[in-house]
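Page 47, continued from p. 46.
Same chain as before, 191 aa.
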Amino acid sequence: MRATCTFCGQSITGEPLEQPNPCEYCSSVSGGYPHLVILTEALAGTAMGYVEGATYSQILLNIARFLLDKKDDKLCGLATIMSQLACEVAIERSLSDVFTRKGIQSLEESVADVLNGYNLGNEKVWNLYSTLTGDPIQEQPFWGNFIRSAKRRDNIIRKGLIVGRTEAEESIKAASDFLDHLTEEREPSRG
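Result:
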């Protein structure tokens, strides 16, 4: 597979270097790493060690960390999206568990049809989650960072926002704190 510029798509001659040269066509310094190869490596290579016994949310968050570790600016947006996706998968799983615990599984599909995803940054989803679980998640210290991350993810997808490493790190931290909280809510202390 030939390396291409991650911004303009032009072929890059030579091998990708640790510190890539700017693209000769668009001057992007993010390099020419073939993202298909990197994602394959994340799923079947280094990140594979995280799969056994992990939840989908944990795997997605580890892939986000893996992407950020590649030190390719273009991957910062993908890392942000993956970290937020990890949270959305966890919320969907949590709601499914609540429907089962409350004996109202028959409502799950109808509710899912009404929702536009499982992003707690969406007020409808947040209200449903809070009502069904009784979890005052919006009072948690990470909540503001989580909401900023959710908005960042929306802006990446809808408006093409380019984010840097610091923003991606903030999103991954917010997602990690969020997932830790959900784990604590599912498994109350056994003291």
